[in-house]
Specification:
This protein has 460 residues and is α+β, with helices and mostly antiparallel strands. It is 31% helix and 20% strand. The protein has 2 domains: 169 residues, Nuclear Transport Factor 2, Chain: A (Roll), CATH 3.10.450; 219 residues, no CATH class. A hairpin with a 2-residue loop joins strand 3 and strand 4. Helix 8 crosses helix 9.
Amino acid sequence: MKGAITVKRNKIWIAVFCIAIMASTFSIPAFANSSDHLNISTPFNISAPGDTLNRTQEEYLAETKTAITQSNSDEQKIESICESFLTLAKASVRDPQSYDCTQLITTDSLKKATVQYRLTDYQYQSALNKALGWKITRDDLVFTDFKIQKKNKNYVEASVVESYTYNITDGFDGKSFRRKMYTFELLGGSDGWKITNVNTDDPWETDEGFEYKPIDVKTAVNAHLAENKLKYSTPSIDETKDVKADLQVSPTRTMYNWSYDFMDAVAYAEVHYSDTSNPVFGFTSGNNCQNFASQCVWAGLGGSGTDITARPAVSTSLVGTSAFNVWCRNQSTTYYSNYLFNWSWDNICGFFNLIQMSTSSTEGPYGISSYSNGVQNAIAGNVLGVDWNGSPASTTLDHAMFVTQVTGSGGSRTKDNVKIAAHTSATNSAYMTLSTYTTQPIGSFARSQVYRGYYTVPQP
């Protein structure tokens, strides 16, 4: 009888042990309060928070406080505050009802135009995504290169680089990516360090004429949606250039067709969009946009190596100093009375003119340039030009951008459907949505499309 009781007790303990194992295996995370906010068991890393909705607002603030308490220096504390602010800001774009980054800003600073611009910009991004039916489904945030730029008693200026990768239902395939540098100003007090100002190196903010002021979110969203619905003029004459008719012209010498691979051009843009120097083509500070766009076209035509005068470039040693089709870095022709047209590699007006004047019987890239419907008809591998005054023409273009990806239908694309890479007013990725890059009206853009190249030697 005693043995039977012992066996029975052992069975009970085994059953209890099994139940405990099952309970621990299938237990629900303590903080999993919604499908959007997923609790994770890994330690929180402020410099690499991962998906911004992995934690709640309260968890972010608590973990930031812990990080500050455990920090051994003001620099570490300030880094924690700056990076936590940016994490909460990104989360607020995705879920504005659950996240708020203003608790890390001093009360007085909330009245500053720069701070109001920053906060309303986050609100605008969130509202625009909702209006367009877009949703960021996943994201990943990483911070690097934190630096204290200035420090004077209780005042600090600090900078940090943010790398943001995200999946958004905007019609584009794959992930989107942005990298930008933020500069913070902070004041120290009895309650610790708090933010008083924040700026970025976004191209519009670094523009000399940019004015910080709050964004009227509703008005801005409605204006964006209205622009997307506008109907534009029929194609201009230069946009319907008869390529087949030109191909029927009998050249005076044998010309070889060089293919233009837009994927090679885009791949070049991916590698070089963030260049601030280039050992082959150089870098012109403050005026490198067309040099970069020409490099992308050069790569698409099969360009490689370190000889900038070799084909597919068209150097003066190849065609002379007075030929209309000179296209080579730092080289010009004397063919045109308009100075801008003589510099087709380095000047956007010159490049657009070069492509428009191209023929199948002369060496160089061959295609069309059009000064209307540039965005609507854009495709990957095109060069976009913009006239900041809104009237694009052969002599009025101010800035070049290289198209890396598009969605939508040709003829009806909007700035939301076009992604670009650019230098001088540099993009913060090789795939920056044009509507994010500039608020310039869609009618301000021209387009140059390269079909192929023609040369007197076969393509390697």
